[in-house]
């Protein structure tokens, strides 16, 4: 049975308490896990620590913590701490993000994200094991680091985000799970083959790698507003967040549409870019409309082969009440 997770907009909520209350409500509704992104608002770690204290059973994780703003050793320490405070409910999701975030906002050189992701996963895994860390890599060399506190038991799983074929293969080979975003229902299948190849390189099977797909969702009595919100959210990522999301959509057989959305958005015609998404993509990439319409569309994602969890992700423009309404409508 496919799990239902929730992807909370950490920075967008009025207060930190509002955000944590959304996580508490997700637990009450029976969701399996709540994921915390970290972009340009509140940090995810503080929000997760408070959430862990106020909840009892729902899983907690980062989707994603970027691999440039924290060292691998610190990510390992953070994972160990959050595993302790949550009583074993934590998963560490990591990924490279993109040049806009890493270079413009963190002031770090983006550089070889695949190799750096691999080294980060391998080091963080050594840290949470509680053993002495000995690592000699291309980016990081560590010797003698060891947790002073008890190692977490069980060790928290480490997931990786990835868009392109090599990034997805890397997730299959080195991580415990893959976080997928910006995929159509039809377009995910090809990347699952990359994931399978990576798992085999890591002496695993695809069953050993948890696949979590984020889906933009909005369920409102005003179905047209819900559709507009999800379409605008998709257009923002394809058109405004660098070229990675555009190229990922192009690889899925939507090359002309991807470039049209990107170019239209870059020219400042955001309404037109949103209209293109609404007309040609939204049903393939989101679940939006009236509660009945959104539920029907969401079921199509739940029925996808090779996916272990569908992550209910809310559009950027949705207010707290709209997030709550959507979360309630699509609850297990």
Describe the structure.
- With 332 residues, the protein is of the alpha/beta class.
- It has a single domain, classed as TIM Barrel (Alpha-Beta Barrel).
- The chain is built from 13 helices and 12 strands.
- The strands form 2 sheets. The chain has an 8-stranded parallel barrel with strand order 1-2-3-5-8-9-10-12, surrounded by 8 helices. A two-stranded antiparallel sheet has the order 6-7.
- β4 (65-66), α3 (72-86) and β5 (90-95) form a beta-alpha-beta unit.
- α8 packs across α9.
- The protein is globular, with a radius of gyration of 19 Å.
- The N and C termini lie close together (11 Å).
- The model has no long low-confidence stretch (mean pLDDT 95).
Report a brief summary of the structure.
This protein is an alpha/beta fold and 332 residues long.
């Amino acid at each position: 049975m496919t799990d239902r997770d929730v992807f909370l907009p950490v920075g967008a909520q009025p207060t930190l308490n509002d955000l944590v209350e959304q996580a508490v409500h997700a637990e009450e509704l029976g969701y399996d896990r709540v994921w915390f992104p970290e972009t340009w608002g509140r940090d995810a770690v503080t929000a997760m620590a408070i959430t862990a204290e106020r909840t009892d059973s729902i899983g907690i994780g980062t989707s994603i913590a970027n691999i440039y703003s924290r060292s691998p050793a610190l990510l390992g320490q953070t994972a160990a701490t959050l595993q302790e405070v949550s009583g074993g409910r934590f998963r560490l999701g990591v990924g490279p993000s993109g040049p806009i975030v890493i270079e413009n906002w963190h002031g770090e050189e983006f550089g070889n994200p695949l190799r750096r992701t691999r080294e980060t996963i391998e080091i963080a895994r050594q840290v949470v094991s509680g053993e002495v860390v000995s690592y000699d890599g291309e980016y990081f060399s560590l010797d003698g680091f060891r947790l002073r506190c008890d190692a977490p038991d069980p060790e928290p799983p480490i997931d990786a985000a990835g868009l392109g074929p090599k990034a997805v293969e890397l997730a299959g080979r080195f991580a415990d799970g893959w976080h997928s975003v910006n995929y159509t229902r039809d377009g995910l299948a090809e990347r699952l083959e990359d994931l399978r190849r990576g798992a085999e390189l890591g002496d695993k099977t695809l069953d050993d790698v948890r696949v979590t797909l984020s889906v933009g969702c909005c369920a409102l009595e005003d179905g047209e507003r819900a559709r507009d919100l999800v379409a605008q959210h998709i257009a923002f990522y394809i058109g405004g967040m660098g070229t990675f999301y555009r190229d990922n959509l192009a690889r899925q057989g939507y090359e002309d549409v991807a470039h049209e959305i990107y170019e239209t958005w870059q020219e400042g015609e955001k309404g037109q870019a949103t209209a293109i998404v609404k007309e040609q993509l939204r049903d393939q990439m989101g679940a939006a409309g009236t509660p009945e319409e959104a539920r029907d569309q969401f079921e199509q994602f739940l029925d996808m082969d090779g996916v272990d969890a569908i992550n209910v992700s809310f559009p950027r423009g949705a207010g707290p009440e709209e997030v709550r309404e959507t979360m309630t409508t699509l609850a297990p």
